[in-house]
Amino acid sequence: MTWKTETIQNEEKLIKNSDSSQVIVRPKYYVGSTGCVWASDMLRLRYEQPDIYEMTGTNESKSYSKQERAFCAKVRDNIFYYLDSTTEDDLASLQKGQNQFVLYEIERLSHFQKRLNLAMEDWKDTENVKVAEKISEILTYINTVLEHLQSDDMDQTLVSLNFLTEQCQHVMQTIDLLCLPEVKPIICEYTDAGPGVGISNTAVRFRFAEMCRIQNSVRRARIHRASGDSAQNEAERTNSSIGDSLVDGATLRWDYYSHRDDISEEELSNLSSEELQKRKANTTEKNAWRVAEEVCVRIDDAKGPAGDFLKAYVTERPEERFFSNGDCLKKYMECGKSTKHTIPGHGYFKKITDFTERHTESGELYLEYRKFKCKQISESCEFCSNSTVCDLYGSNIVSAVPRPYPDYSKLPHFHYLSHVQTPVKVDQKDREPDDFQPRANLKKLFSQGEIASDYHDAISDFSKKFIISEEIAKKYISHMETLKLDREKRSIATTQKRQNETAKDYNGYNWNEMFENNMIDKQTSCTLEKYIKHHKLGQFKYKLDKVQAVKRHIAKESIIEVDDGNDSEKESESESDDSDSDLILEANDTDSSDESEEENNALQSEISLHTYSSRSRRICLPKKFQDYITL
């Protein structure tokens, strides 16, 4: 949607100029709500509906069709992303030839190749032969690089990569010379704060910065709106229209495919249990995507919230989406500073993380990017210096998005200043994040002990300063007091538990029971040390080593060897009594009765045992002992 200003009754107000509703349908079980999925879908819309994203009014844009502009945009964005994600640090790690870096580069190039092939499928609808020919050349070069990578020839690989980079830069220049319409330099994204879209999500912040670079934004803001309130959240009104289009009285079929399709009964009966379950799972996924397509058909061209018509798309498959390095990004963000250099792609991840810190500002409910904001810290960064300068805004930093500011002249009624009157600076300095955000300031004052539910004067002053009713402030303060009480109770319980654990000695634990219930891993290092010292297992520095040592020793102690010549009747009776036990031991006694042997065989098949032969005895162990026993 776009907005414009109009003067109504001598007041300048923002009026919605245009509104277009786009819907992305996802089978949520197979495509979750993550920052990678959200950002890929946003770029998908840029290619499906270029008119919404592009600036109009230039003469050059009239000579290119919608399909041509979408094709060139898709090619340019993919090439830019490949070049941007190629860093010297990552190439230096690749040159070492370590397996994880080689595999990462193979996956990155293969994905780049797949994205270009998808773009080439749209080339038939365009007349830009020159760009298409260059893309074909790049695809050939990618195959050459992949061959060098798979042959572990790092020197030749780096030479091929440098040549590929030069060819990609040449294609970028060719597309830029076409003078295609630019993406709108200022974009505002309204969302709720759910998973996959919230600004506190690491992947969301990272992809937000990437999209600012890909689309060369001058200012981009991501603002959380009230969920469930159609007056404050435009997406809620679209959801209402989606519901109307789906609830039309018709049933929604889900069983389009069966696991019996395209296979004979004989072939089906010969499948193993694992193969059958895998086939059923694949059929379920196939049905899920088919249902998503059916939902998309029902929504497409339905009446939208602003009198327009909804446009629906099915989300891209995970292997086809624009951003594909989510797993490595997650590892990089979760690992310690000393081990980040071991994560594939660490050079690029660090570059974008630093870029985010220098160019974005975040509050409780918003995330804002401004190009050239790096100048406020030091000199202009590499991206701001080398990227194309927007003709509308030049090379100067644009002002921040005006955030609500109280209008104290209208007290006791609560009002904010109009958009035009709202200041972005106070005392010639940029306003602090969340300076008049009520909930953020309530949290701050509560944590400092300056406000509570029985501080009536403080609540009254807060209500006037941040123009919210005292009832709303009291309600949220009560909520924070409840959370604080819960934290204190949990802290007391945790402290008491630690004290009890410290007071216990070795005999205070049922070690075998903890082993059987897989609770050894959850014990503290102090608890594990009691077992290690009691049995004199040695010295271990890390908890993982302690866990393995304790598990290994308990598993060995659980084996009771049965010598030759034991009474077979007594052994059979013991095994019958302990039929639910995890440990079954058998002696090769030729005098054992047939009945006892049948019981043993039935019991072994029931609990799926591993059998080891050692001289004159046979030891049968459950699978969970496999990692700890060596005979």
Look at the helices and sheets and give the structural class.
alpha+beta
Taken as a percent bin, the fraction of beta residues is: 5-15%
Return Rg in Å.
33 Å
Helix content: 40-55%
| Largest beta-sheet details | 4 strands, mixed
What is the second-level CATH architecture of the domain at 56-181?
Answer: Up-down Bundle
**Strands across the major sheet, in which order?**
4-5-8-7
What assembly state would you assign to the polypeptide chains in this entry? single chain
- Give the averaged pLDDT, no decimals: 83
Query: What is the CATH topology descriptor of the domain at 56-181?
Result: Four Helix Bundle (Hemerythrin (Met), subunit A)
Q: What would the principal axes of the Cα set say about the shape?
A: globular
Low-confidence stretches: 560-620
- Number of DSSP strand runs: 13
How many helical stretches? Answer: 22
What is the CATH C-level name of the domain at 56-181?
Mainly Alpha
